[in-house]
Amino acid sequence: MKIMMLLISAILQAILFLIIPFVWWLICGRKEIGFLKWVGLKKPIIKNKIRYVITFVFTIVVMSILSFVVLPFIDKATIATSQFSGHGMSALIPCLIYAFLQTGFSEELLFRGFMTKRLIHKFGFQVGNLLQALLFGLIHGLMFISTVGLLGTIIIILFTGLLGWLMGWINEKQSDGSIVSSWLIHGCANTIASIIAMFNIL
User: Fold this and answer.
1) Per-domain residue ranges of the chain
2) What is the DSSP string of 30-96?
C-alpha cells in the first residue's frame, strides 16, 4: 500500500511539474515541434562516448560528495530521504520510485527540459545554462536555509548549481538535447542519497 501511495504521489508530482511546460508549449511551440521532443524526452544521441561516460560518472560522484558533505549538517527529518531512514533493503522499491520518478523525472522535466531549453534559446548556451544552474542551486539552497544556516545554504547552492550546470551541459552538448541523461544522473544520485538514509550511513 505504501508503494502504491508513493507511486501515485510521484505521478501526480510529474503531472504538476508538466503543467507549466505544457501550457507554454501550447502557446509558443506546438506548431514547430511535438511536446516530447520540445522538452527533450527523446533518445539521446551520444557524440563522444568517452567524454559522455566521464561527465556522467563525475556528476554522480559530485552529487554523492554533496550527500556526505551536507547531510551531517541537516536535520535529517527535514529531507525527503528521511522516509527511508533505517528501513534497509525493504525500502529499495520506494527509494527507486522516489529517486527516478518523483524527483529525478519531475525536476529534469521542469529544469532541464523546460527552463534550460527556453533560457538557452533566449540567451545562448553559456548564459542560459548558467542561469538555469543558478536557479536550480538557489531553489535547493533556500529549501534548507532554516536548518543549515547561511554557510550551509551557500554550500548547497554552489554544489547543486554545479550539478545543474553539468546536467544541462551533458544534455545539450553530449546527448543531442535529450534530458534522459540528466534524468538518469539525477535518479542515480538520489538513489545513493536514499541508500545512505536506508542504512543510516551518516
Assistant:
1) 47-198
2) TTTS-HHHHTT-S----S-HHHHHHHHHHHHHHHHHHHHHHGGGS-GGGSGGGGGTT-GGGGHHHHH
CB atoms within 10 A of CB 22: 17
Q: Tell me, what's the pLDDT at 77?
A: 65
Cell of 63: 552529487
Angle value at C-alpha 151, between 138 and 57, nearest 5 degrees = 60
Predicted pLDDT at 65: 80
Q: Which of 161, 172, 158 is nearest to 124 (CA)?
A: 172
Q: Map 103-120 to HEC letters.
A: HHHHHHHHHHHHHHHHHH
Is 0.85 surpassed by the pTM of this model? yes
Least confident piece of the model among 70-74, 82-86, 126-130 = 70-74
Rounded to 5 degrees, φ, ψ at 176 are: 55, 35
